[in-house]
Design goal:
The complex is a heterodimer of chains A (317) and B (186). Chain A has 317 residues and is α/β, with parallel strands linked by helices. Chain A has helices spanning 13-30, 55-66, 87-96, 111-121, 139-153, 171-182, 200-207, 215-218, 243-250, 254-257, 280-283, 291-310, 313-316; strands at residues 44-49, 70-75, 101-106, 128-133, 160-164, 186-190, 210-212, 224-227, 266-267. Chain A folds into 2 domains: 8-137 and 296-316, Aspartate/ornithine carbamoyltransferase (Rossmann fold, 3-Layer(aba) Sandwich), CATH 3.40.50.1370; 139-294, 3-Layer(aba) Sandwich (Rossmann fold), CATH 3.40.50.1370. Chain A is built from 13 helices and 9 strands. In chain A, the strands form 2 sheets. Chain A has a 5-stranded parallel sheet, with helices on one face. Chain A has a 4-stranded parallel sheet with strand order 2-1-3-4, sandwiched between helices. In chain A, helix 4 links the parallel strand 3 (101-106) and strand 4 (128-133). The relative contact order of chain B is 0.20. In chain B, helix 2 (18-36) packs across helix 3 (51-66). Chain B starts with a helix and ends with a strand. Chain B has 5 helices and 8 strands, in the order H-E-H-E-H-E-E-H-E-E-E-H-E. By secondary structure, chain B is α/β, with parallel strands linked by helices. The chains are: A alpha/beta (317), B alpha/beta (186).
């Protein structure tokens, strides 16, 4: 594994296999009475969140704590960032306190990579984990999605996964396409033309995934469907005429559920807009909705990532 | 293919063959039964990786003698090692404990080679996170000495005086295709 996890490009299929193996062990810890492993005892991890987040931040916090690390959460609100401090100064300040790992979420694409660069310039190279940066990537989300699907299917080799929603603004989609294809799945991404990223054609040819505007045609062919969140603020951006119209064309409605093969799993990274991109019938479909499995897998996968990046010899160097 | 004398020497010498190993495990099984006065509440927990097949073999022997099934499991101590930071990160192996857990059980930890005692210390820490056994005992196939911690085995297959420069290599059918213990110069 590389020193940082900034993008799915940083991990090979082999690395992902090792992470999943580790995550499976961590998953067992979640069911124990004593949910603690001593692997990161004495290490300090800072969660630096410049964007709102509930599940990702708490998931990283729990993951760190169950590995016995000291975890400190910093959010932009109420921190020196709101007093005008630059990202570089904030990062250099917190790392000067002697921390061992940094988890960053930022609205600017590439911010975690930039931070990792600054730190190595300053000779303070600690592992940096991208917890979502702008419209770039969200690697731990993609890993937990792939892990959840792998547990369901055994292997993703030859499986067909549909990813549906606001692709233009989605870092989850970008990371997921990379990880799923790396693990041998075939991927079809579905969006209305206005939310299909420009230039996706070249990328899809290069990376080997398919694009479609027609959800009803894709669903019967899919082994699993991943619905993405439609951000409410996009509605005023002219990407689609109304919420109702979006749901009619691209929501996983009750009637569309019938198009899926029986038992095909449904995923959603959350938070969900029930009634917009996903109907309650789909979100709560017994044995089919893996949305809560994703959340619990999130802790296990993040434990595995923290363990592999921070526990070993290189981490101390 | 003919091996050069050098290669032969680096292969070391066989100190336990398949028959020796089988007899040692049979004796350990009987000792465990005697000490435990039967197979009740017994859980044989093998340390990853080669302790796991050994635990299964001992369990099979115990249940053959006692006529009742004996619970087995596996314990991985990677995360509990005190040298975690001085090695590149290793992927942990499975820890599997039967449904009933370890509370109130007589847990016999089973390992292949007892050396510094650090693995067993880590195993005791790992156990305490899993529950509270009534008794914990230790069975090892080979005790090669050189303890660095106050730890001793309750059941030993073979005491093998070694030099620190030597390596003890244990092969098992389940993991390596043959049953054999060798001493080699490192």
């Amino acid at each position: 594994m590389t020193r940082h996890l900034l993008s799915i490009d940083d991990v090979t299929a082999e690395d992902i296999g090792r992470l999943f193996e580790t995550a499976a062990e961590m998953h067992d810890v979640q069911r124990r009475e004593v949910k603690k492993l001593p692997a990161l005892r004495g290490r300090t991890v800072i969660n630096l969140f410049f964007e709102d987040s509930t599940r990702t931040r708490s998931s990283f916090e729990i993951a760190g704590k169950w590995l016995s690390a000291d975890v400190i959460n910093l959010s932009a609100k109420g921190s020196s960032t709101s007093k005008g401090e630059s990202l570089r100064d904030t990062v250099l300040t917190v790392t000067a306190m002697g921390i061992d790992g940094l988890v960053i979420r930022h609205s600017a694409s590439g911010a975690p990579g930039q931070v990792a660069g600054w730190l190595s310039q300053e000779d303070r190279s600690i592992p940096v984990i991208n917890a979502g940066d702008g419209m770039h990537e969200h690697p731990t989300q993609a890993l937990l999605d792939a892990y959840t699907l792998t547990r369901r299917f055994g292997s993703l080799e030859g499986r067909h996964i549909a990813i549906v929603g606001d692709l233009t603004h989605s870092r989850v989609f970008r990371s997921n396409v990379k990880s799923l294809t790396k693990l041998g799945a075939s991927v079809t991404v579905v969006a209305p033309p206005t939310l299909m990223p420009s230039g996706v054609g070249d990328w899809s040819k290069e990376a080997g995934f398919a694009t479609s505007y027609d959800l009803d045609a894709v669903l019967p062919e899919a082994d699993a469907v991943m619905m993405l969140r439609v951000q409410r603020e996009r509605m005023s951006g002219g990407y689609f005429p109304s919420a109702r119209e979006y749901t009619v064309g691209y929501g996983l409605t009750r009637s569309r559920l019938a198009l899926l093969r029986p038992g095909s799993p449904i995923l959603h990274p959350g938070p969900m807009n029930r009634g917009l991109e996903i109907s309650p019938e789909a979100a709560d479909a017994v044995d089919q909705s893996l949305i809560l499995d994703q959340v619990s897998a999130g802790v296990a996968v993040r434990m595995a990532v923290l363990y592999h990046l921070l526990a070993g010899e290189e981490a101390g160097a | 293919m003919t091996a050069t004398p050098d290669a032969l020497e680096s292969e070391g010498r066989v100190v336990l063959d398949a028959g020796d190993i089988a007899r040692a495990l049979t004796r350990i099984s009987h000792e465990i039964i005697e000490r435990n006065k039967g197979a009740e509440d017994l859980l044989l927990l093998g340390l990853q990786t080669r302790g796991v097949p050994l635990a299964r073999r001992i369990a099979a022997k115990v249940s053959e003698v006692e006529g009742t099934p004996v619970a087995t499991g596996s314990l991985d101590v990677t995360m509990y090692r005190d040298d975690l930071r001085s090695h590149p990160t290793r992927t942990p192996h499975r820890t599997e404990v039967p449904g009933g857990g370890i509370d109130g059980k007589t847990v016999v930890l089973v390992d292949d080679v007892l050396y510094s005692g650090r693995t067993i210390r880590a195993a005791l820490d790992a156990l305490s996170d899993l529950g509270r056994p009534a008794v914990v005992r230790l069975a090892v196939l080979v005790d090669r000495g050189h303890r660095e911690l106050p730890i001793r085995a309750d059941h030993v297959g073979k005491n093998l005086p070694t030099a620190r420069t030597e390596r003890v290599r244990l092969h098992l059918v389940e993991t390596d295709g043959e049953d054999e213990v060798r001493i080699t110069e490192s």
